[in-house]
């Protein structure tokens, strides 16, 4: 399979703290790739470097086999934190603004709303949405650009069980549409339910990378893989 992302010896230091230490990884087209690790393990820092919002200390990465360019970045949809929506505007109006800012076709808005199952509620004001619906609208705002890759940082944080289940199903369904997904999570259970491949980070070090199926086969020391209660 075609390589979507190759990371070579990527490192981030904050003074003496090594937030990400010499990370080497490959993510291929069609994978739902989980970056698993407890709080402070370096997940967000890694994603930040890959999106050029955090400056790397050393090492290298390539998207689609090339150094990142502005044009290529359009293929990457990222939700690192909940985007700011206008509370008194409808979902559809909010997405129109997103499309305008990101220079994305307005025709993508309806399919995005359908995909995240908000089409029926598209004229309702954002402030009337539940947390789960807000998170689904965040995902829709990335889908408006029809990216090839979606990066999601802890997308189920703070949601109730139903909201969590909906987001997980949505991620799987987006992957079925042929998009590659990179998902940061501190929950082993989430990675097992959603991902095909995964890497385990702890204190900036890569402890393991492989297939999620290997967890079931008992080939991974899950003790190190998660801070699940
Ligand atoms: P969380 O889920 O809590 O965000 P994480 O796995 O995403 O955890 P990071 O946020 O990447 O972890 O943090 C990795 C380490 O880098 C932590 O020890 C954190 O305190 C440290 N760190 C992150 N950002 C900074 C910063 N701007 N300055 C100094 N240290 C930082």
TrEMBL record:
Domain ABC transporter: 5-228
UniProt keyword terms in alphabetical order: ATP-binding, Nucleotide-binding, Transport
A molecular-function term among this protein's GO annotations: ATP hydrolysis activity
Protein name according to UniProt: ABC transporter ATP-binding protein
Superkingdom per UniProt: Bacteria
Similarity section: Belongs to the ABC transporter superfamily.
């Amino acid at each position: 399979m075609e390589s979507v992302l190759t990371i070579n010896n990527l490192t981030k230091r904050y003074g003496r703290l090594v937030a990400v230490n010499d990370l080497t990884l490959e993510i291929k087209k069609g994978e739902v790739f989980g970056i698993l690790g407890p709080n402070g393990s370096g997940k967000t820092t890694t994603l930040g470097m890959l999106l050029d919002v955090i400056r790397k200390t050393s090492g290298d990465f390539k998207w689609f086999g090339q150094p990142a360019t502005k044009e290529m970045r359009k293929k990457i949809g990222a939700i690192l934190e909940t985007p700011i929506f206008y509370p008194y505007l409808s979902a559809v109006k909010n997405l129109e603004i997103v499309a305008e800012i990101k220079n994305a076709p307005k025709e993508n808005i309806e399919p995005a709303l359908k995909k995240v199952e908000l089409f029926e509620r598209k004229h309702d004001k954002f402030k009337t949405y539940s947390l789960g619906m807000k998170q689904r609208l965040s995902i829709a705002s990335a889908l408006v650009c029809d990216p090839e890759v979606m990066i999601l940082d802890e997308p189920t944080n703070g949601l109730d069980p139903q909201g969590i289940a909906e987001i997980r199903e949505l991620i799987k369904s987006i992957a079925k549409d042929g998009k590659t997904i990179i998902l940061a999570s501190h929950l082993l259970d989430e990675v097992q339910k959603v991902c095909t491949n995964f890497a385990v980070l702890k204190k900036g070090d890569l402890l393991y990378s492989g297939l999620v199926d290997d967890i079931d086969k008992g080939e991974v020391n899950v003790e190190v893989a998660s801070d699940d209660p």
